[in-house]
Amino acid sequence: MLALRSLRSVERDVHLVLDPIRLAISVPQAVWLLIRRRPAAIFTTGGYLAIPVLVAARLLGIPVVLWEGNVVPGRSVRATARLARVVGVSFGATCQSLGAGRCYVTGTPIRDTSGVDRLAARARLGLGPADRMLLVFGGSQAVRTLNEAVAAALPRLVERCHLLQVTGETAYAEALSSRQALPEALRPRYRPEPFLRDGMADALAAADLVVGRAGSSTLAEVAAFGLPMVVVPYPHAGGHQRANAEAFVAAGAARLVEDEAFDADALLGAAAILDDPRAHAAMAAAARGLARPGAADAVAELVLALATRSPLPSPEEIARRAAAAPGTSVAA
């Protein structure tokens, strides 16, 4: 265990003095930990808690792969990127922000989607071939804004499409009540779920349009399924999600609605994409162009190259690996 603690606040208290001391103590602790474990290479997503390990790895000559999923990296990642031998990113613009020497666009590692069949997923969700489905979910970030918009738009929305909504635990009972208040014929068109774990792959495969946040993993999975998206960036956490969303908007794969502007009318406007086949097809094609389903393989290839002291692959080789389905061979 390291003496370092997470930076949980910025208040002027005793931790303003203790945190630098903890950081200084944690470096020799990390050195001793790495000497005992003797790793061939280290993979990290950076952040404040990774600083002692990154410093210790540099002192001991242990190569490090640092991976960053956001367009705009956090301060700790920016401060420590030069301690890594190799940096992997989801967005090409991030390489410029980090100023790293060996920077690869790997994409964001996600679950393997290659075996998920759309027709089978839709059948499991009770959808017919011609049914259109909107998926609304907020990832790990607060979903109150999304839930309130769904509640206000629900009667009008389900007249136009099927809706699968991930509500979170606290809003699930209210969503069930809203479903019960719908006309009986429309109730099957609305399916609220508190969470979707193993079922998320089916939900994405079955969907025709997604409304959600702009976390790196969310965007990567939506792109892997080639889905148009209306993205509502989480307005906090340093604005990282807005920059992620703007990258998808610039590529033509998404439309952006600010959190404070997202209401019932905005949600109904988002659903209108389903009524515009040309716009829907263009956004879907742009999403597929951003997909990097082999991101996990690409990151693993970099880690293994460092661990075995092999020559690093070229950025072009990593780009091909990231764009390929997981486990497939990639021509040089």
Notable traits:
332 residues; alpha/beta; Rossmann fold; 2 domains; 14 helices; 46% helix; elongated
Count of runs of 4 or more consecutive helical residues = 14
| CATH fold label of the largest domain | Rossmann fold
Number of domains: 2
- What structural class do you assign from the helix and strand content? alpha/beta
Per CATH, the superfamily of the largest domain is Glycogen Phosphorylase B
Computed over alpha carbons, the radius of gyration is 22 Å
Strand order of the largest sheet: 7-6-5-8-9-10
CATH class of the largest domain: Alpha Beta
CATH architecture of the largest domain: 3-Layer(aba) Sandwich
Average pLDDT works out at 91
Task: Give the uncertain stretches in residue-range form.
Answer: none
Q: What do these coordinates show?
A:
The protein has 332 residues and is α/β, with parallel strands linked by helices. Helices cover 46% and strands 12% of the residues. The protein is built from 14 helices and ten strands. The chain has helices spanning 15-37, 51-60, 75-80, 93-98, 118-124, 144-158, 169-181, 200-206, 216-224, 240-251, 264-271, 277-290, 295-307, 315-323, and strands at residues 42-44, 64-68, 86-89, 103-105, 133-137, 162-166, 190-193, 209-212, 229-231, 254-256. Helix 5 (118-124) crosses helix 8 (200-206), helix 9 (216-224) crosses helix 12 and helix 13 (295-307) packs across helix 14. The protein starts with 14 loop residues before the first helix and ends in a 9-residue tail after the last helix. The model has no long low-confidence stretch (mean pLDDT 91).
